[in-house]
Design brief:
By secondary structure, the chain is mainly alpha-helical. The longest helix is centred in the first third of the chain and has 38 residues, at 21-58. It is 76% helix and 0% strand. The structure holds protoporphyrin IX containing FE (HEM).
């Protein structure tokens, strides 16, 4: 996995760095802060997936998949169980492989690793989205139709962004490839943002607010089902515009917004890790 130093260069340097070095440096520092917090948070999520789902499967305890999921292991549903197993395996691979793919040192010094990890990541993202759609609409899942529509749009965006990232690199347009790869990374991270966002919301409100924890439905969750990827994608677009064409004030403002959002995200990661992921790793 990336080191703090390599993460520091995860996002390419601003073009106008020479004219506004302090603002560009502030924006770059904010991006590094975000990237590092994201990598740490995704490692926790990956460790949870491997320990809970991989651990129970390795011990032959497939019903252990139902500890969190409403339709984890269903006796007699062979195809559905296989699809769920593939989905969970891909989930762990994507959480580990995504951040690695964004580290420039890997791209520069280990191009073969970048290419192979990239192929696995693209194929994995597409399969995770397709298996997720199957689980959502045919197998059954928690939440209501609005939440299901929200995560379905997430799946569609994963498929579109994966296609565009691949198309751009095949045409040799590396700058566009990087932008679509970043969008793909955020869309694939949507389900992770959902958990982090929900934990942040619970911490701020001191418990469930704006939804019914029994049925897992309500306006807060409906909004989160879309915000889990639309908000990160909107922040990315604002960041790219400020980085590539913004003046010093815009860059400084963006740096402050990104830092504040990362503090909130880090709080969500801490609550998710301590309250949700670490305690369930012995399932
Ligand atoms: C691409 C990144 C994705 C990752 C990393 C991921 C990860 C996971 C994990 C870890 C679980 C088990 C639940 C838990 O322990 O928290 C899960 C379940 C599930 N995922 Fe995904 N997922 C991804 C994408 C998707 C997409 C795009 C969809 C829908 C289109 C989807 C639909 C589902 C469904 C329906 C469940 C079962 C929930 C239930 O039984 O209530 N996933 N996913």
């Amino acid at each position: 996995m990336p080191s703090a130093t390599s993460a520091a260069h995860a996002i390419p340097a601003p073009r106008q760095a020479a004219s506004t070095p302090w603002a560009a440096r502030a924006l770059s520092a904010s991006a590094r802060f975000w990237f590092l917090a994201t990598v740490i948070g995704q490692l926790f999520f990956a460790a949870y997936i491997v320990a809970l789902y991989g651990g129970t499967a390795a011990r032959g305890n497939l019903p252990g998949w139902n500890a969190v999921m409403s339709h984890g292991h269903v006796p007699g549903d062979g195809a559905g169980n296989v699809a769920t197993g593939i989905h969970l395996l891909l989930a762990a691979i994507l959480m580990l492989g995504g951040a690695l793919q964004l580290v420039p040192q890997v791209r520069r010094h280990l191009p073969a690793l970048h290419r192979w990890n990239g192929r696995v990541y693209l194929a994995g993202a597409v399969l995770a989205a397709l298996s997720g759609l199957y689980m959502l609409w045919w197998r059954g899942a928690v939440g209501d139709t609005t939440q299901h529509l929200g995560i379905s749009l997430n799946a569609v965006l994963i498929l579109v962004f994966a296609g565009l990232a691949l198309k751009k690199v095949l045409r040799g347009d590396i700058a566009a490839h990087r932008r679509w790869a970043l969008r793909l990374f955020l869309a694939v991270s949507g389900v992770w943002f959902f958990r982090v966002g929900l934990m942040c919301w619970l911490a701020v409100n001191g418990g469930p607010a704006g939804f019914d924890p029994q049925t897992f439905t309500g306006p807060a969750l409906s909004i989160l089902a879309f915000a889990q990827y639309l908000l990160p994608l909107a922040v990315l677009e604002a960041y790219l515009r400020c980085r590539d064409g913004g003046n010093a004030m815009l860059r400084l403002g963006m740096a402050a917004v990104l830092a504040l959002l990362t503090v909130a995200m880090s709080a969500g990661i801490a609550v998710a890790a301590m309250g949700m992921w670490l305690p369930r790793m012995h399932g």
